[in-house]
Write a structure and sequence with these properties.
- With about 80 residues, the chain is mainly beta.
- It has one domain: Immunoglobulin-like (Sandwich), CATH 2.60.40.
- It is built from no helices and six strands.
- The strands form two sheets. A four-stranded antiparallel β-sheet has the order 3-2-5-6, with no helix packed on it.
- The protein is globular, with a radius of gyration of 12 Å.
- The model has no long low-confidence stretch (mean pLDDT about 85).
Length: about 80
């Protein structure tokens, strides 16, 4: 949220989150990895802010949150 946006201040809400260390990966529409980082979620704070991705060109991106080898959550991001 918000989506579409300039990706300077974007949030993802994962209400089913348990306390865990997860990986965040952002891909462009061609599945080229443009960003990766680790995130930590807690049950009392299931909202996390994406890093500032305003440097990316306009387009469609996919954010994937993984716990190990499986995709736990994915979201489409539209950059204006």
């Amino acid at each position: 949220y918000p989506n579409p946006s300039d990706l300077a201040s974007t949030f993802i809400i994962l209400p089913e989150a348990a306390a865990s260390k997860l990986s965040l990966r952002i891909f462009d529409i061609s599945r080229v990895l443009v960003h990766s980082s680790e995130i930590i979620l807690t049950p009392d704070n299931p909202v996390f802010r994406l890093p500032d991705l305003s440097w990316l060109p306009p387009g469609i991106y996919v954010a994937e949150v993984t716990n190990g080898s499986s995709i736990w959550h994915s979201a489409r991001l539209v950059k204006l």
